[in-house]
């Protein structure tokens, strides 16, 4: 899942485990641990990319990433409104 989301954010497959870690905001150690677990489970695959594409889940990761990105943009736009509402004086 992480590899698919990183691919969605970058618009391409990560070029290295370091780029994957940076994109997903993981420690390098965690990224390498994830890679080791993947390689143990799927020794004939170099990355999850082919499997994500063949299973049709990469398109879902792409759509999920767009929704998360749009949600973040909407949240950033609403921040000034939150401040205005929170700082309004009450008429009691």
Quaternary status: single chain
Order of helices and strands: HHHHH
Structural class: mainly alpha
Mind summarizing the main beta sheet?
A: none
List the uncertain runs: none
Structure description:
By secondary structure, the protein is mainly alpha-helical. It has one domain. The chain has five helices and no strands. Helix 1 packs across helix 5 and helix 2 packs across helix 3. The protein is globular and about 50 Å long.
State the gist of this model.
It contains five helices and no strands. The protein is an all-alpha fold.
Summary tags:
92 residues; mainly alpha; 74% helix
Strand and helix layout:
Blueprint: H1 2-10, H2 17-23, H3 28-41, H4 49-55, H5 57-87
